[in-house]
Amino acid sequence: MAISDSKTRELESLYAVQASGWVETMRHASPGDEMRFVAWLKESPRNVRDFLLMLSLDCALEKLDAERLHSIEALIRKVDQRVAPLTLRPAPAAAARSRRLRWAALAAGVLVASVGALVWYAHPGFHEFETATGEQRTLELEDGSVVSLNTHSRVAVRLAAHAREVRLLRGEALFHVAHDPSRPFLVSTDDAVVQAVGTQFDVYRRDDGTVVAVLEGQVNVTTAAPATASSGSAAAAVAGRGPPRAPAVRSLGASQEAQVSHEGSVSIREVNNVSDTVAWRERRLIFRDQTLEQIVVEFNRYRATPIRLAGGSVGERVYTGVFDADDADSLLQVLSRDPALEVDRSGEAIIVRLR
């Protein structure tokens, strides 16, 4: 799978360097190294995957060149260009194998204990990409499709012979799909499956459901089916929502948006300014008659220091405006001029409350 931007390639290289460094460090690990290693594994599923990959390469090289007569760095570079050269210290074969098994078992244990995106690694062919808070990435897939990831987002991608599959595991992504009628392009969340052939659309996985907005072309949105009718009905009855809905298929055209709830309901509306939906690609956040609660949720996706609303009624205030996603003050200046509000920046979070 090709990745178009140089920043992405640099990040992939840094990830590989870290994993290779841990393979070397754990040859002669101190108790402090062991604690830091476990903490690093738990930071991200990517760390577990990359460590196991580098460990496998190291074990393979050990079999090929147990006496370390050849240039390990040169051999590794032939296998994977991302791997940085390291000076490896020789170790007794039996002890080395024992340590490798120990750390592989530990990494595998963390892998099993982790949740979320790790599930997809059990399915051959899926590749995962993610962004940190405030980061955005653009990926060019092998079929020519382009995926743009918004802040704090994660996708798993598989391009198979008869289908192109993307699982939006977190956050938001904009898809510009290359035309290929023989391989439908499918984007799935827990709430829906979006199918498109030659189009451009945005999918946002939110806490309350999934939002799909079409910029060009047409997509079909299929709501997710309940696990079983009986268990679904029981769960719905407990929650007071009534029986679960049957899966439904709805078609969306350009300038239309669908909101799919966790329960399977779908609401479709016309969007006069659908380009506002993807203004995040220009680091702009555009709001039209939206509540302060909705606005703060979007801002906090880009911020290390969150904005908090104190009291339920403050979040119901409605605003319209265009803001810089990287500048919280662009929002806070507006709120500070509202005589009904008080903005407190003294603590670890910025608190907004009614006076």
Span between termini: 54 Å
Radius of gyration: 24 Å
The class by helix and strand makeup works out as: alpha+beta
Q: How would a textbook summarize the main sheet?
A: 13 strands, mixed
Which fold name corresponds to the CATH topology of the largest domain? Jelly Rolls
State the low-pLDDT regions, or none: 79-94, 108-123, 227-240
Shape: flat
Let me know the average pLDDT. 76
Beta-strand percentage?
A: 25-35%
CATH architecture of the largest domain: Sandwich
**SS element count, helices:** 8
**What is the helix/strand order?**
HHHHHEEEEEEEEEEHEEEEHEEHEE
| Fraction of residues in helix | 25-40%
Number of strands: 18
Written description of the protein model:
This protein is an alpha+beta fold and 355 residues long. The protein has three domains: 6-114, no CATH class; 127-274, Jelly Rolls; 283-354, Phage tail protein beta-alpha-beta fold (3-Layer(bab) Sandwich), CATH 3.55.50.30. Helices cover 31% and strands 30% of the residues. It contains eight helices and 18 strands. The chain has helices at 6-25, 31-43, 45-64, 72-79, 93-113, 229-239, 292-300, 328-336, and strands at 127-130, 137-140, 146-149, 154-159, 164-176, 185-188, 192-196, 200-206, 209-216, 218-223, 249-253, 256-261, 266-270, 284-291, 307-310, 318-324, 341-344, 350-354. Strands 1, 2, 3, 4, 5, 6, 7, 8, 9, 10, 11, 12 and 13 form a 13-stranded mixed sheet that branches. Strands 15-18-17 form a three-stranded mixed sheet, covered by helices on one side. Strands 14-16 form a two-stranded antiparallel sheet. Helix 3 packs antiparallel against helix 5. The longest helix has 21 residues, at 93-113.
